[in-house]
Amino acid sequence: MSKVQGRLRIAVQKSGRLAERSLDLVRDAGLRVMKGANDLLYRVENYPIDLLRVRDDDIPTFVADGVCDLGVVGENVLEEARNGGPQAEILMPLGFGKCTLKVATPPSLDYAGPASLEDRRIATSYPRILKRWLESRGVSADIVTMRGAVEVAPRLKLAHAICDLVSTGATLEANGLIAQETVFDSQAVLIRSPQAPEPELQHLLDSIIERMSGVVASQGAKYVMLNAPRAALDRITALLPGAGSPTVMPLSGRDDAVAVHAVCQEAVFWETLEKLKAEGASAILVLPIEKMM
Ligand code: ATP
Ligand code: MG
């Protein structure tokens, strides 16, 4: 596949666990996505950008080869695709698609650390990551590559253990498997091609990356406003989660209290509000942040 002159391309998963959130990221960055007649390619109406919608396994190669300028993919898929050739660069973690590649065993296997895997058969969809992990632990085992349904391999006597993606652990539990080792922690990442775009598109590319980083930074961030007794100001600002230096303003006609405004980078829970109140804070407002730059 070759590139269309004068347009940037962003690779996203067509359908699956990352598809919707990837599209949200693109939209939140201000790109108006038009469903095209073609299912593979969505056009962006307000910029010369196309979205290439593909299997997630294809995204690292498309971005590494410069067929796409940017991509959204699970770090696990990127890591598995690492082959010594030119690589896509990770620009930022995106905060969604979180999961962990874990080694899990059936109760019949007496597990006492990685050495218990010596000479065993392990089923996985991530043979390269698993191979590197086993080597780093000095264990030699047989790796059986399966595209899916890895979790049934022990029951079918296809393997003694598995190495698979886990998020809640419900699938492991349903199959009577016990998580033993964390092999790789993953989430969706934004990746960029090592190949520069056409010079006239460089500025657009930089600005899209900056906007996406703003979208990610504002996720979960809140704007908090409250009134605080001057005497409790230090204790109250210390309670605000992930806030830099807050803005402190006078309240008209009151010397004993001030208004505090802060951007909190972390979730603001009810427990925090209760503690703020206990320190004498009043008129507490927690507002969502739409954009941040
Ligand atoms: P495709 O058809 O695009 O190849 P897929 O079946 O390979 O899709 P999905 O199951 O949609 O992939 O998962 C995509 C990504 O979502 C995974 O590579 C991983 O990064 C992430 N993910 C998050 N939680 C989980 C989970 N519990 N199991 C599997 N993947 C997860
Ligand atoms: Mg896939």
Automatic annotation (TrEMBL):
Catalytic activity: 1-(5-phospho-beta-D-ribosyl)-ATP + diphosphate = 5-phospho-alpha-D-ribose 1-diphosphate + ATP
Primary residence: cytoplasm
SUPFAM superfamilies per the UniProt record, alphabetical: GlnB-like (SSF54913), Periplasmic binding protein-like II (SSF53850)
Compartment list: Cytoplasm
InterPro entries for the chain: ATP-PRT_HisG_long, ATP_PRibTrfase_cat, ATP_PRibTrfase_HisG, HisG_C, N-reg_PII-like_a/b, N-reg_PII/ATP_PRibTrfase_C
Domain of life: Bacteria
HAMAP family xrefs: HisG_Long
Organism for this UniProt entry: Brevundimonas balnearis
Pathway note: Amino-acid biosynthesis; L-histidine biosynthesis; L-histidine from 5-phospho-alpha-D-ribose 1-diphosphate: step 1/9
Family: Belongs to the ATP phosphoribosyltransferase family. Long subfamily.
Cofactor entry: Mg(2+)
E.C. designation(s): 2.4.2.17
Activity regulation remarks: Feedback inhibited by histidine.
Molecular function GO terms recorded: ATP phosphoribosyltransferase activity
Protein name: ATP phosphoribosyltransferase
Function: Catalyzes the condensation of ATP and 5-phosphoribose 1-diphosphate to form N'-(5'-phosphoribosyl)-ATP (PR-ATP). Has a crucial role in the pathway because the rate of histidine biosynthesis seems to be controlled primarily by regulation of HisG enzymatic activity.
Domain ATP phosphoribosyltransferase catalytic: 55-213
Pfam families noted in UniProt: HisG, HisG_C
Lineage of the organism: Bacteria, Pseudomonadati, Pseudomonadota, Alphaproteobacteria, Caulobacterales
Keywords: Amino-acid biosynthesis, ATP-binding, Cytoplasm, Glycosyltransferase, Histidine biosynthesis, Magnesium, Metal-binding, Nucleotide-binding, Transferase
Histidine biosynthesis HisG C-terminal domain boundaries: 219-291
